[in-house]
Amino acid sequence: MPTYQFEAARGPVIIGSLPLKLVFQWAVSMPGVGVVIAFIIGYTIHTSLMYDYEWVCRKVYLPSVSRLLNLPLERIAWNILSLSSVPLQLFVVMRQYILTFSTSPKQQYLRIVLVISSVFQSLFLTLLATVGERESGAFHVAFFSGFSVATITNYTVFTILMKCNVVEAPEHGRRRIFILLALMLVLPIIFVAFILHNVFCIPGTYEAFAIFEYLTIILIYSFHLSNFYLFSDPSQKILVCHRNGKLAPVRI
User: pTM of the prediction?
Assistant: First the structure.
């Protein structure tokens, strides 16, 4: 009768894997799905709270995303999905950092900025999900400002690094630059419209704020979609390993 002897593994033991493509899809889509669910709930249950309502100094007639995600029921789906996507963003950052490898000292600095700005993106997204206008309008605006700066910085650095270090079809680079310039134009308009409504109470400015907020979300997702091909290789996987009695994710 054969006998078997079990010995401790000398190195990491792979116990599972997850395609990087799927991780990217989840990380990018979960906050967006949260917004869509919030809109569905709002239009189904809270229509009266979305149109023709008092806000600061007058009645407004178009709901901003900020207001929608601040409603009690709507914010539940947004909070759960947006916060759940934050850990997955780390793998996206890791892929970007590896992809833009360079021996140039200046570009090494830019890669560090890329990682730091990604961390702040996730941080401010988390803060936006947990501190709404009901809790503190001032903090909510500050967190949105931080998210905007981190996003523009991240997209700008990533576009530069891709241009310098990665050989790709020209249309990918042009698409990134176009979306980045559009974001740089739209985000200041949001802040100006917000101030014109909250400080000067000019008619129509809150509706403009809401429209450009929608446009900002579309542009952010357009930027992510323009980079989707970088994560579409089926051989790129997240490996879950057992190492020294602990589970540890390892990317290859």
Answer: 0.82
